[in-house]
Description:
Blueprint: H1 10-33, H2 45-51, H3 64-72, H4 75-118, H5 126-131, H6 133-156, H7 159-172, H8 183-190, H9 207-211, H10 217-229, H11 245-248, H12 250-259, H13 264-269, H14 271-281, E1 287-289, E2 295-297, H15 298-301, H16 306-311, H17 318-342, H18 350-378, H19 389-406, H20 410-436, H21 438-461, H22 473-487, H23 497-517, H24 521-524, H25 527-547, H26 551-560, H27 569-584, H28 588-600, H29 604-612, H30 617-637, H31 639-658, H32 671-675, H33 677-698, E3 703-705, E4 708-710, H34 712-735, H35 744-768, H36 776-796, H37 831-842, E5 848-851, E6 856-859, E7 865-867, H38 870-911, H39 914-930, H40 938-944, H41 946-951, H42 953-987, H43 989-1014, H44 1021-1025, H45 1035-1045, H46 1065-1076, E8 1080-1083, E9 1088-1091, H47 1093-1098, H48 1104-1116, H49 1120-1144, H50 1154-1170, H51 1174-1178, H52 1183-1187, H53 1189-1197
Antiparallel strand pairs: 1-2, 3-4, 5-6, 6-7, 8-9
Helix pairs in contact: 1-4, 1-6, 1-29, 1-30, 4-6, 4-7, 4-8, 6-10, 6-12, 10-12, 17-18, 17-19, 17-20, 18-20, 20-28, 21-22, 21-25, 23-25, 27-30, 28-30, 29-30, 31-33, 31-34, 31-35, 34-35, 34-36, 35-38, 36-38, 38-42, 40-49, 42-43, 42-46, 42-48, 46-49, 48-50, 49-50
Pfam families: Strumpellin
Organism: Blomia tropicalis
Protein name: Strumpellin
Amino acid sequence: MNDFLDPSNVCGQNLLRIVSHGNATVAKLYELADMIPSVFRLATKQDQTNFSDLIVDFSYFKVSDSFDRKIDNDKLLQEKDEGLRETYLDLLLQFYILFENIHQYSIELERFLNELDEGVYIQQSIESVLLDYDGKQLLCEALYLMGVILFTMDQNIEGIVRERMLVAYYRYSAHRTTSDSNIDDVCNLVRSTGFVRNGKRPTNYPEDFFKRAKIRPSFARLVIGRLRSDDVYNMISSYPRPEHRSVGLANQGAMLFICLYFAPEMLHNESAVMREIVDKFFADNFVISVYMGTIANLIEHWDSYKAAKAALNNTLDIKNVRSIACKFNNEMSELNPKIAQLLKEGVLTEENILNRINEHMNTCRQANVALRWVMLHTVPLPGDFLENASCIKRCKQLREQIVSDLKFNPIQLFRLLLNTSEFELRIRETYKQLLSERLTKLNVYKNEAFERINELAEVFSGSKPLNRLTPNDELQKWFQSFAKQIEGLQFTENFDQNQINWTSRKIIQLIKALEEVHEFQQLESNMHVKQFLSETHNYLHLMVKTISIREEVLITQQIIADLSYAWKIIDICFTKFMQDGIKHDPSLVSKLRAAFLKLASALDLPLLRINQAGSNNLMTVSKYYSNELVSYVRKVLHIIPETMFSLMAKIISIQSNKLKELPTRLMKDQLKNCAQLDDRFEIAQLTHSISVFTEGVLAMKTTLVGVVEIDPKKLLEDGIRRELVRQVALALHNGLVFNAKTKSVDLIQRLSLLVKTMDGFRRSFEYIQDYVCINGLKMWQEELSRILNYNVEQECNAFMRQKVLDYQSIYQLKSIPIPIFLPLDPYSLTFIGRLVKQITNFTDPKNTIYVYSLSAWYDSKTHQEIIDGKLFSLILKSIGVTGTNGIDRLISFQIVSELNIVLNEIDANFGRNKSINELLSGNNGQLNSDTPNGIITAKNFVAYYFPLVSRMGKIFTKLSDSIGRIGQLQILRLSLAHELSMASKFQARQLSSALSTLNSAIKTELEQKCRSSKSSSTLSANQLVCPIFEDESPLLYELSNYLEYNGITDTLSKVFIHKRLPPHLDTILLLLLASQMSKFVYVKEISGLTSSNASLKSGEAIDGVPYVIGILTLLRQFHVELANRFLKLCSQFVNAWINASAVSQTKQTTEMPTEAINMLHFLHYLEKFGCFKRQQIAEYLPSILFDQFNALNIAISK
């Protein structure tokens, strides 16, 4: 019969594939458990308020029709539901695939068992597979992994969350309609068990949960029987001492712990079996590692099982526990100094390791057993179930007793871990080197021994005289013969065991012969001969030891050095001590490397079967566990950049507050005072401390952890980046906090303080970069840009239906995470949102007047200045170019939102209102027939349009507010762009000039292409535009980013949305203006329109310039023909009001109507901001009226 794992053995390969699938599924469970969207937990009040009507558990299936109907009838719920679907569908799909894989695993395992029963695999059955060494391992692992998957899923993904995600996936995905969908079975398997960590234990948990996998009880009993009786993994050979048996069988014990839940009657009733299991596997331990560091306390988990609980009583006996704790206390007291002594320089030489390898292996074994027991039984566990007070109390009492009896000192345990790790690493590296150089060393030893014996033969022949030594023919012949025997030893690259045994016996015979000849009086009395014989004797001994080097020693060491049980608890136990040790002695990092490599050995457990199966999951699983370990290494070593930054804070303080810049010219007698020697000496001390920490990290060698390589320089740089991000994000978060009483002066002060803080960071980084071997300026700019872009992205999410989640963001990195702070107000998520909210509040067009010539905002009541251009200069200095551009981007999203509000209101009140739509169409048609020349008279306007203005007054007021906000936001964008442009021209003149030139050249080329395309009458409308964008080069995209960052942009020409043109929009905008014109008044001092006193008193105030720019922005979203028609209607509006005034004027009233003069001012600003040609506006107005309407109005009024 073939080997069970042979590629030609179909039975073995299928079972191996199933086990490989199980290990990969557990890794995916761990990975996705960290990616659960918070919205599906409904943990916050905000999430409950927003999504409780949309995110539900399996109760949905009972009321699915009414639930869907409720959403269909509510437009707001529809929008939220669509947003959830677009945002989370990809992630929900990953979770569903995971749950489906879990279900598939149980199906595959049952199918394999059925195939064994049906004889599909010739001469194979469940019993015969369990008799095979590899077969029984794989069958036991298959059942064990099924339990681990269920156990891990319930521990890491709450049942209610699983149900909510499955319901969401069911509703949002079309997969449920396919014929091969097994979503019903998946839902049944992963539905909530009622388990909540630290909550009440559900009835019959977890055995009822495990029954869902539909594993046949007979198979479970066979596996449990095999695990009970056999040393399945042959671990006893690695742990030969009886007191170490439970550690050798620890993995097997963990498998039994899981598999027993598939046969719960054994836990309940079979006392003899449970007693046997406890005596063999848990006689001296009751806290176990289930899988990759998942810890379980048998006291707690077996408390509800009668037979298991009774069997465990002997283990939990106070005397037994005290005896074990005292034993390990003594061992730890002995091991720490013993291993520390072995680690001294010059002790662990190659010769020492060769001669004492067995002793060293016993020391490693003893240290690892002590580490395992002490770590597992002293770690504070919160417990999985809290309903049984007596059980929890007993767990705490036993732990406290163990801590007391051990005289537990965590630092002593940490020292033992470090010493053991380094001890193992040195032995492993030396032994590997010996193994790889074995053939070379054997030949060297042989040659050295041969040369010495041959030289002795020459001495006794008389050809090479030696003092007081007479020639001896017999000894000469003997040494020549002996030399030939040494020369005859043959060593090959690959020894088999027979060759090793034969050669070893031959060398031992030579050693004995040498010892016998050594006793001759003539040889004993001569020191030169004695030395030669002693050296030869030593070389022969080294040959025996070297030829006996076996790879099995490394395998045994790998087994006993396993630290997978501490995969999770090492963070709880040792992180603080590691960081404190590094803080006091940075050179400790090189010792920690050994501990990290020891922890990396845990990766062998899940990867072994995946590798044997040749699965495609090998790289993904390896990468996941490796990255997790690297993340932990980063966490431990983060104390270095953290300490560096605390020292840098002192440098910043000295540089910012104490150290003064030297003047350009300095008198000789002032030199000492200006030198500030004490302050500079303190900076030098702090700088030296920082450089010492840097050396500590760089002293660590480049290390391969799993499949990820740790480069100490990269690790240091990432650590510095991480701490920089944390510090800067915290400074921005705390520096930009506002409340309802914040005034513009406070805003200026906080921005000024933030400028000082950020400048201090930048200066200290610039100062320190040479001492820590980093490119400080590059790091500063990259990380600051990432922080700002991420926060802008989070704020923009509020305006997007498909939100960018953290794992999708290009700015959020797992290795260098950007801190996420809780929102400080209900309107903003981050400091960027708070800053923009504050600026928009201060520049609200309902409360302020914007003076275009001064680029400043004034209070509409007190006429006091609120904000001027200095604010935007401070913004640029505090958050840089990226932050300023980010604010522009966020404001653009707000403009899009306001534009959508305007167009939706127009669509709802005009487009969908049939009567209004027909009335507008009829009026326009009637006017065109009544006025063939296109001139609207006052009579016409009053007859046709005035009733609509009165009827839609409330709607027009609401629209005017939105348009005013659009104009306000556009003015803010203009100010930001101006600040960026000026900064670019002053600080990056060559870049600004190059970008301007390139921009002009590309615009000219595009215009030429457009004109040449339009000249061809045979092309369609789409073909006329498309040639401009035929080139798929990213030039335009990249260039636009550069232009925006440098403020080279036409802000008011930007197109924000692409929507269908609402019918009669030109007429609607005219009516909107007609309804608002009486609310404006022209103020000569500011040369602009502003709210009249009447509108201020009525609460309908609106500023002129924002209103004009708001209308212009709305016009820019559509074809230029809309603007042309609108300008025509506005001109006719002026004609109509002047005509009405002329008809009704008396000798006492000779002024122009307010509406007409305001509309002329409006058109004047529209021409100015929109860059319209005068002819477009003056086409339907007398030129003199538009050119000199101010002077005419003054003259008439006089």
